Amino acid sequence: MASRGGQDSSGSNLVRVPPLQYVHILDKTTNVTYVEEGPQSIILQVHQELVVTPAPFVVVPPGHYCRILNPVDRSKYEKGKPCVVKFGQVDIRLHSEPFALYPGEQLGNSSPHDYKKDIKRLPVVKANQAILLEAIVDHTDLDGIERVTGERWQIPGPITYKPTAEASIGKIVNAQVIRPGHALHLRAQQDFTDADEVERITGEEWLVTKEGAYLPGVHAEVVQIVAPYVLADTVALYLRAKQQTKDGLGKDRSAGEMYMITNEDADSYVPGVNEDVVKTVKKTVLTTKQYCIVQDPVGEDGRNQLGGRELRVGPASFFLKPGERVDKLEAVFVLADDEALLLRSMEEFTDGEGSDAKKRHPGDVWMIRGPRDFIPSIEVHVQEKRKAIPLRKNEGIYVRDTQSGKVRTVVGPQSYLLTATEVLIAKELPAEVEAMLKSGGGIGDESIRKVAYFESSVDPALLSGKRDPTRLVTYRCPPNTAVQVYDFQRQKARVVFGPDLVGHHHSVYHR
Question: Which of 110, 198, 325, 503 is deepest in the core (most CB within 10 A)?
Fold first, then answer.
């Protein structure tokens, strides 16, 4: 009994070839292998050998293709005669009638009996996609364009691509979607002309800002999608040019130049490939009671005036331009009627206007009194704020005139405000005098009765803490006691008998 499709099971030379199958038979006398297609039964002769047992025809479904290696030139094929085999070449077969593989032909890496894994689906390129191809050999493509080996190109969709033997399929390229306000950062991998007919050189970078889907060219590398900086009323952007270029607003910028973009220029800004974002800055806001000094302000020529200063007074709001700086926002000096400011001129300038104008020289010192608001100009340094010192009866302070060096006492009752040339001076006392003042004079090894007697002379201000050395030194001399005092100005000593009050320019020695 014969088996289905193949040699007879009894060992005879009968080969049954079913429909849509084929066999390869070798003629040993001519060393030629030829194909026989079914349906038929073949009796092998002595000089014939079955090389390929009955194998199914190759069926390529619609929408599929296959690659045949070492294809046979079928137009010149004659049964039993040597055929022309194109070794090393490839033939692309699309959907057609089932066919047999001729001797020497190979479908991928599969065997003739199991070929379906090498049947491939035709690439479907959707809208906003492209298929990347690379030329295997020099050839002219279907569009009549000459391609050289290694050249790459793209075919945009929508299309069902039919492969050719001269080009290999790379990948499906998806379009980049550029949202409103965003940009696509690209880099040229080699010299080429882009879709906008702009010549690009290797390594060049550029931005595409047109909204919608964008298919990068085959020689354009996608670096990133660049998001915009949204510029609110209170936010600005500092930028630095990497090289001579035009910014996003079309203005020429030189290499290394720093500049600022605010919402007055654009609602949002996408930095170019030749721009570095230095930082975002907030708007400086001055209230009606604030002012500031801007260091290195930008002049009318657009350059920083290094070493210069500019006074800005509230109410105001502004962005500091690149290179400008503000140490801190200062509060306006609000002076009461018993307050004053001690000022020093740092450079020559004219103070005031009209008939009140006065020329100030470096080092000049003067005072302004309240009540008023005061904002110092850039030529003026505020040394200190002074307040009138209230003095009761029998209270006083030590004051020195900085011009003459003279020291005097100012005694109450009054409220005294130091002049521009006056300063408080501290009067230091020997330790034993300090101790005497704190104990009212009752110090040493005297009896308890004597110590208690001197308690009435203790100044209550000394009991709360350390003595204020700028305050007038006074001592209440008790009855039946004597105090020796020394007058420095007259260089004379005298004795004061109690009850009495000792003070002013004296050194006190209790007896």
Answer: 503
CB-based contacts of 299: which residues, under 8 Å, 6+ apart?
305, 308
Over residues 345-360, the pLDDT tens digits come to: 999 888 888 777 889 8
Element holding 387 (H helix, E strand): strand 380-387
For the chain, give the number of residues. Answer: 511
Hey, how many other C-beta atoms are within 10 angstroms of the C-beta on 53?
Answer: 15
Q: Where are the alpha helices (DSSP H) in 9-153?
A: none
Identity of the residue numbered 490: R
State the Cα–Cα distance between residues 482 and 493, nearest whole angstrom.
13
Query: For 181-332, where are the E strands, in sequence order?
Result: 183-188, 192-193, 199-200, 205-208, 212-214, 220-226, 229-230, 235-241, 245-246, 252-253, 258-261, 268-269, 275-282, 284-286, 290-295, 309-313, 316-318, 325-326, 330-331
Cα-Cα-Cα-Cα torsion 159, 163, 167, 169, nearest 10 degrees, comes to 70
Query: Which stretch of 304-313, 325-334, 384-393, 440-449 has the lowest confidence by average pLDDT?
Result: 440-449
Rounded Cα–Cα distance for residues 511 and 441 (Å): 9
| 8 A C-beta contact, residue 256 and residue 241 | yes
Query: Within 13 A of 275's CA, how many CA atoms are on the CB side?
Result: 26
C-alpha closest to that of 360 among 383, 377, 374: 377
Dig out the tokens for 186 from the structure.
Answer: 């690209």
Q: Which helix (H) or strand (E) holds 58?
A: none
Cis, bond preceding 376 (omega within 30 deg of 0): no
CB atoms closer than 10 angstroms to residue 83:
19
**Interacting residues of 423 by C-beta distance below 8 A, sequence separation 6+:** 399, 400, 402
Residue 366's nearest CA partner among 389, 384, 387, 388 is 384
